[in-house]
Each structure stands twice: as C-alpha cells, then as structure tokens.
Amino acid sequence: MSDRTSLQLSSEDFAVMLDLTERVRVIKDAENYLNNIPDTMNKFNVYCALLRGYARNRLLHKSEEVMQRLREMNYRKPFAYNLMMGLYSHTGNYKKIEALLREMEEKQINGGKTTFRMQLDVYASNGNIEGMNKLLHEKKNDPEISENWKVFAVLANGYLKAGQAEKSREMLREIEKRIDRNTCPSAYRTLVSMYADLGDIEEVYRVWNLMKNEINIRNTDYYNMISSLVTLDDFDGAEKILKEWESINKIYDFRISRLLIKGYVEKGLFEKAEELVKRIIVTQNKNDLSLCFQMIKACDSSSINSRDVTFICGRAGVCALGAVVAKYLGDDQLLYYYLAKFKEVSLHCPVEFASF
Questions:
Q1: DSSP tag of 249
Q2: 230 near 259, Cβ under 8 Å?
Q3: What are the entry keywords (predicted)?
Q4: How many CA atoms lie within 13 A of 79 on its CB side?
C-alpha cells in the first residue's frame, strides 16, 4: 500500500499505519515511520498513535516526550491525557495524575468516563473522601455511573484507605445490589477480596457460598478465595477449599497450591509447605515441577536467615527439596547448587545434623 504514490493519505491513515508498525514490528520502526511523514501533515493523530505504542510498552520517558510535543501543538483532547494517566497509574505515580487532571481542568478539556474513573481511582488511592464525594455528586444523575458496581468497588477501597471500615462495608453492600449475570463472577471475586481486606471472615464465607449457588466456580474463583483466606491467616479454611478444588479438577494448577505454600513460608510453617510441595513432586509432571521449583526459589530466599535447620523445616529442608526437584527436572546445575547449599548448612550446624 505504501508503494502506491498516487494514493492521497490522511493523518488518520498515517496514524493507523504507525500503530500497525508498532504492533507487528518494534518501536524503533514506528519512530522511523513517523520521521518520514510529511511536515505539512496534521500530526495529532500520528503522535497519539505513537504515544499509545509507548504507553502500551510502558516507556515512560518517551511517552512524556510525545505528550510534551502534543502540548506544544496545542492538543486539547482527552485521549492522550487518559493514556498518560493510565501509564502513571501502573507506576503508582498519583501526583502526576493529579497534575494532568488540573491541566485538563485549566484547559477545559472534558475527559468523559475514562477520566472520571482515573480521577476516582486517584482519590480512592489517597483516601481523599472529600474528593470522591464531590466527584460523585457531579455524576449523580448519570445512570452509567450510579449503577456501575465497579464505581462502588473503588469507593469501598477509598473508604478502607481512609480508615472508615463501616463506610467501606456499606459500599460493598451497594455492589451486591448491582450484581447481574454479566458482572457476577468478577463482582463476587471483588467482594471476597475486599471483605478479606476488611478482616471480615464471616462475610468472605457468606459471599463464597453465595457464589457457589449462583455461578459455576472456576479456577480463578478458587485462587481468589484461597488468597483471601491466607490473607486472614485462615489456613485450615484454605486447606479445605484446596481439597475441594482438587476433588473436582483433573488438571492440577499449581498456581493455586502455590498461594497456600507461600502463606506457609511467610508464617514460618515450613513443615506444612514441604508436605504440599511433596504432593506436587510425586506427580513428576514437568509443568508442575517447574512451577514447584519457582516456589522453592521463593522459599530459598525466605529461609536464608532461618534458625530452624532440621530437614523438615528451615534452610536445610528447602535446599533438600530444591535438590530433589532439580534432579527430577534434569537440571544438573541447580542440583549441584542446592546440594552445595545443603552442605553449607550442615557445616554451620554440625550438632543438629549429626542426628539426621
């Protein structure tokens, strides 16, 4: 298409070509393509396409350069601002988002629903209750806002950050009123997670049982529930949910078990972590073993300063398990690494290991 010189291309055409170049090739190719666009062409759309590519690839410095170029061109549309706010939200730089919002207000740029969501997120993340309420008051007659359960999820998080637990619970009850067939799986997961953050274990189980009656529970739901119970230190409950999941799933997803193992390790319950890891080793499934090995690496880091040096728990147990898994995986380098670490522990603690 680019060889047909008789074709008159618009700025929109160039923007589409630039976006496609960024997607199928690399950023450098997209930059070279931009440099070859005629200077007489209106480049708003083209620069926005390049900014979208930078933002998609989380290239903050380059994104800021393009945004500044758009400012110099007197750009006054919300698209680029929303892209930059989305990029800043990934890095947690809420001050930069606030600065962009002030700039939009000064330039009288109407951001629409995307900007509203970004602004609400900023207020909620900072526990700015006054800002949240003011923003909601401005949108109180918009049914797409007032009936959107995700808005109330953001509000619940904001109240929680501000230390207003009861107001947060009130927002969660509003979410439940707005659940429908299209939104229920993700809405229920949000309720489970947020009640866990509030430390309300009874509500966590209530919503979980409600979910089981209303929808087909998937791996994502089990993952979320076990994660929430680990947050609440309810390991007995998490173990029961894990067994329930194992009883109905033929394909083992180690990501779910890993949540519980990680929780055990963080609490120093190395014996329980080992028991669960051994169940994965027994299968000798390569995929499970690879994931299992990732968990052992995490245990390795967590147990460096552990004083418990028996085989069942502490650094020695982790190194021993690492050696076993490495052997099953056929990774000689890692096998020798963990054997060497195991010997280091035994040399530092000869009395304990004499009994072993």
A1: -
A2: yes
A3: Repeat
A4: 12
